[in-house]
């Protein structure tokens, strides 16, 4: 019998031994199978919907249509365009029309097949620029009569003047594509209802408090009548935020008065996928003869799909964040977020920044080429420096970008670049990111931690942030352990239950290390003070906490003793502290100016590729990643973030493309949507330049997203170097590269 | 779909013989998970494309979502729960923790089963773990942690040889 306890429900060792229970491994008493009927048309009116045959099938407990569910105005962002089930019109292939809960999978399937629907097909619009034209079918009349729920227009400095002054101007229309997040665990949820507690949903979501608020609004319930419990998450990368599947499972559970489990199969997951927001950039950058960047001018078109998930935040990021890497003297961005009859698009690691950087880093290489400058030199000349305030107002207390460039040149052997054999190339790209973003929730920012001394002297740390396997729990345990001088293994980190743990804004925008980590640090410091004052009260003045034990003169006492002292004085209550970290940041203003994050990580990456001129196929043969993420708290997990991000970037640039034609996904299987395998990944050499950041816990900055941000640019630049031809559209597939090579 | 024929089948799972009544065309993955409660084996696709459901049949990795339970009769079936009991498997676990071979963990049972099989008999896979893992997708780790962990465990004598 095993008596060793895991460090958290998502403990890595348990995962390696097959002991971790994800939502699809759970089974509640009386649980039913839920299934969803989805629209086969990208835009249609529902003329007739008859579920009577489905209701009559043996084993069917509940069948719901748009007539059976509430229709409140709700949605996860300020653009409230969601429903629970469609009432009269469907807006994309996969839009939910009806749902069934049944005793068995077979009965549920049979019921779905027995639902009769007649549609009147309506003209659809599938391209954001077409969607903006007069006469295009309008998706949400009340939100955007012109299909444009959001427009961005900002300018700093005098772009027109710099256009006159520029000696070199490079421009182009760049496109980033739909990427399927590729979570290995298919999307699913279990929901239950009780009259006392309301809705409980077991759902892998890394933004469960926003999910709670959103779903409560959808049902017209108070927020605390929805509880989200987060089982271990089997991969997300942005796909598992706030999802209609969760809402529909809850609606079925309410109707059936029994728990309902919906697990999508991979086909359904991919056909109805909410992929990375595809962006089109008309980008122009100008420089003077010495290679000083003068201006950047961009128009961005974003395809939101038929409803708004997180696309507004993605386009806002694309329109601003990459500008904070260089000393542009002026910058102008125009952004158009458009509805189309495609499946709604959403966030994925990189969140608009990686996409825009693909375009920016490509154009900067074009400028270097024209000026006959080394691309690394051109960058060094223009990067932001520590102590500066960037063009959009980011305050850089720390910035080791220069050191990152020097280091990546050294470890990649950058000087080899000049004499590589034909069809071999090296490319460099830079990146920045945030560690949390003030505007994710305009109402508040920060994080709360609760730290509790248990009777056996071990500690429990509760947080509102979410473990995704990235190592958050290990980091928090390490931070608290360093403050208190206790072994890391004596701290159990708990999170992922809106009914039990402190409020959390969500694990997105690379928030968790700095926001939750600072809260963990504050809580550990508070506990230390409480322990010392308790010891002084019990033992006498001069008692202290040393190496995780209470010391008084020559005597030392274990923390279990201190736990007992506290309980004896407080009616048995455990010694508990609760601390909130509120970052010293600024809410970006209406023009997106402000200092939105406690600190900013930076990176410089170099990719080396080999292109086969006969097939156009690119093989990444070497990769070097240098990071300024402040102090690295857990090196193994930090490296894992970089390896994983680079692998995802290699997939994105060289092979992955969720192909959607007239709203229909053409490659909804892992066979046809190829993701990198073990043999597609070259050796990746990583260097962390550890400088302490004053605003991060133990000096840390974020890492998860900045590790992906430069990858598309670095590989694209390497391919351009290898072939002499610039690729403008992701992915740079074999076919596209071949065409470019053979174009004149 | 066709659950018409029920049949008693004898399966040897993790060294124990069990008789299971059911449809012999049901997938081995479902029988292990639903029938035997062995949820360590994961289902990522049901179409043989992701490798999360990999188990060993007579020491050979197979995607159990594509194996009809009936055809697994008479074979030695080993799942991650069974392998986890072994000392040499534990060496691999420790190496994976050291090298970052696991993050979200959903691919992990399949990856571990394949890697363990490779450590027993590398020649079965042309010697190369990268080749052995060609049917195992991992979206989190970028594979390098997995490869390094396996090399370390093998060098430390974790294999059967
Ligand atoms: S579930 Fe069997 S290969 Fe994916
Ligand atoms: S650890 Fe998440 S897919 Fe491999």
TrEMBL record, chain A:
Record-annotated Aldehyde oxidase/xanthine dehydrogenase a/b hammerhead domain positions: 17-123
Species assigned in the record: Paenibacillus sabuli
UniProt protein name: Xanthine dehydrogenase family protein molybdopterin-binding subunit
Domain of life, per lineage: Bacteria
Lineage of origin: Bacteria, Bacillati, Bacillota, Bacilli, Bacillales
Pfam families in the record: Ald_Xan_dh_C (PF01315), MoCoBD_1 (PF02738), MoCoBD_2 (PF20256)
Example of a GO MF term: oxidoreductase activity
From TrEMBL, chain B:
UniProt xrefs under InterPro entries: 2Fe-2S-bd, 2Fe-2S-bd_dom_sf, 2Fe-2S_ferredoxin-like_sf, 2Fe-2S_ferredoxin-type, 2Fe2S_fd_BS, Beta-grasp_dom_sf, Diverse_Oxidoreductases
An annotated Gene Ontology molecular function: 2 iron, 2 sulfur cluster binding
Keyword set, alphabetical order: 2Fe-2S, Iron, Iron-sulfur, Metal-binding, Oxidoreductase
Superkingdom field: Bacteria
Any Pfam family hit: Fer2
Pathway: Alkaloid degradation; nicotine degradation
CDD domains: fer2
Protein's name in the database: (2Fe-2S)-binding protein
Biological source species: Paenibacillus sabuli
Domain 2Fe-2S ferredoxin-type: 7-83
């Amino acid at each position: 019998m095993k008596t060793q306890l895991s460090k958290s429900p998502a403990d890595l060792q348990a995962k390696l031994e097959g002991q971790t229970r994800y939502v699809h491994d759970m089974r509640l008493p009386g649980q039913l199978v839920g299934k969803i009927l989805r629209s086969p048309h990208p835009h249609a009116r529902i003329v007739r919907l008859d579920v009577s045959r489905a209701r009559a099938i043996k084993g069917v407990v509940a069948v719901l249509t748009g007539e059976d569910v509430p229709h409140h105005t709700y949605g996860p962002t300020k653009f409230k365009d969601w429903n629970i089930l469609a009432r009269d019109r469907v807006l994309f292939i996969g839009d939910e029309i009806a749902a069934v809960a049944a005793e068995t999978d077979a009965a549920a399937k049979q019921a779905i097949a027995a639902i009769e629907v007649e549609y009147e097909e309506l003209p659809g619009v599938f391209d954001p620029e077409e969607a903006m034209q007069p006469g295009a079918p309008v998706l949400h009349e009340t939100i955007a009569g012109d299909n444009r729920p959001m427009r961005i227009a900002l300018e700093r400095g005098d772009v027109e003047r710099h256009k006159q002054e520029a000696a070199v101007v490079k421009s182009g229309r760049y496109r980033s594509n739909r990427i399927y997040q590729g979570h290995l665990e298919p999307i699913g949820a279990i929901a239950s209802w009780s009259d006392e507690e309301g809705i409980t949903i077991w759902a892998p979501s890394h933004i469960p408090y926003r999910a709670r608020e959103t779903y409560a609004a959808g049902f017209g319930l108070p927020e605390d009548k929805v509880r989200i419990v987060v089982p271990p998450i089997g991969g997300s990368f942005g796909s598992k935020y706030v999802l209609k599947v969760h809402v529909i499972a809850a609606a079925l559970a309410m109707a059936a008065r029994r728990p309902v489990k919906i697990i999508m199969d991979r086909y359904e997951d991919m056909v109805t996928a909410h992929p990375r927001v595809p962006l089109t950039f008309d980008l122009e950058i100008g420089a003077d003869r010495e290679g000083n960047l003068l201006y950047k001018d961009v128009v961005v078109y974003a395809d939101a799909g038929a409803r708004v998930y997180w696309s507004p935040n993605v386009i806002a990021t694309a329109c601003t964040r990459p500008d904070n890497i260089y000393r542009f003297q002026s910058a102008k961005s125009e952004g158009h977020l458009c509805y189309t009859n495609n499946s709604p698009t959403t966030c994925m690691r990189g969140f608009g920044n990686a996409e825009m950087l693909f375009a920016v880093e490509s154009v900067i290489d074009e400028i270097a080429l024209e000026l006959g400058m080394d691309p690394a030199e051109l960058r060094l000349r223009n990067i932001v420096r520590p102590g500066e305030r960037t063009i959009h107002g980011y305050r850089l207390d720390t910035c080791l970008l220069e050191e990152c460039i020097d280091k990546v040149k050294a470890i990649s052997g950058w000087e080899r670049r000049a004499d590589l054999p034909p069809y071999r190339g090296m490319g460099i790209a830079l990146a920045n990111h945030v560690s949390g973003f003030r505007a994710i929730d305009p109402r508040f920012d920060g994080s709360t931690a609760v730290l509790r001394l248990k009777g056996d002297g071990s500690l429990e740390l509760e947080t509102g942030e979410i473990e995704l396997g990235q190592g958050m729990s290990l980091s928090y345990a390490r931070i608290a352990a360093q403050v208190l001088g206790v072994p890391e293994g004596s701290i159990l980190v708990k999170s992922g239950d809106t009914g039990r743990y402190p409020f959390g804004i969500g694990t997105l925008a690379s928030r968790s290390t700095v926001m939750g980590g600072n809260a963990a640090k504050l809580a550990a410091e508070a506990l230390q003070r409480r322990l010392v004052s308790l010891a002084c009260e019990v033992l006498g003045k001069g008692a202290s906490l040393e190496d995780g034990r209470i010391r008084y003169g020559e005597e030392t006492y274990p923390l279990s003793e201190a736990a007992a002292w506290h309980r004896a004085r407080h009616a048995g209550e455990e010694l508990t502290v609760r601390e909130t970290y509120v970052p010293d940041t600024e809410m970006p203003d209406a023009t997106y100016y402000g200092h939105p994050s406690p600190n900013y990580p930076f990176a410089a990456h170099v990719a080396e590729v080999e292109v086969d001129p006969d097939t156009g196929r690119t093989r990444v043969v070497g990769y070097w990643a240098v990071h300024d993420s402040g102090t690295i708290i857990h090196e193994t997990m930090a490296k894992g973030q970089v390896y994983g991000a680079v692998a995802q970037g290699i997939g994105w640039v060289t092979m992955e493309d969720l192909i959607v034609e007239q709203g229909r996904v053409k490659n909804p299987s892992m066979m046809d949507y190829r993701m990198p395998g073990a043999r597609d990944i070259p050796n990746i050499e990583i260097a962390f330049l550890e400088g302490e950041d004053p605003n991060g816990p133990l000096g840390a900055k974020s890492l998860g997203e900045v590790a992906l941000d430069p990858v598309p640019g670095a590989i694209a630049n390497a391919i351009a170097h290898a072939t002499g031809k610039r690729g403008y559209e992701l992915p740079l597939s074999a076919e596209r590269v071949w065409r470019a090579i053979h174009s004149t | 779909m066709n659950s018409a024929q029920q049949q008693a089948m004898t399966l040897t799972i993790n060294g124990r013989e069990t008789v299971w009544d059911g449809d012999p065309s049901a997938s081995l993955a479902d029988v292990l998970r639903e029938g035997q409660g062995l949820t360590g084996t994961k289902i990522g696709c049901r179409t043989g494309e992701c490798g999360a459901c990999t188990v060993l049949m007579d020491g050979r990795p197979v995607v159990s979502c594509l194996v009809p339970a009936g055809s697994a009769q008479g074979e030695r079936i080993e799942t991650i729960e069974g392998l986890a009991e072994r000392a040499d498997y534990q060496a691999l676990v420790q190496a994976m923790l050291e090298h970052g071979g696991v993050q979200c963990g959903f691919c992990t049972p399949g990856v571990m089963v394949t890697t363990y099989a490779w450590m027993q008999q590398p020649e079965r896979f042309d010697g190369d773990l990268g080749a052995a893992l060609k049917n195992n997708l991992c979206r989190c780790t970028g594979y390098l942690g997995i490869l390094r962990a396996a090399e370390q465990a093998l060098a430390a004598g974790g294999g059967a040889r």
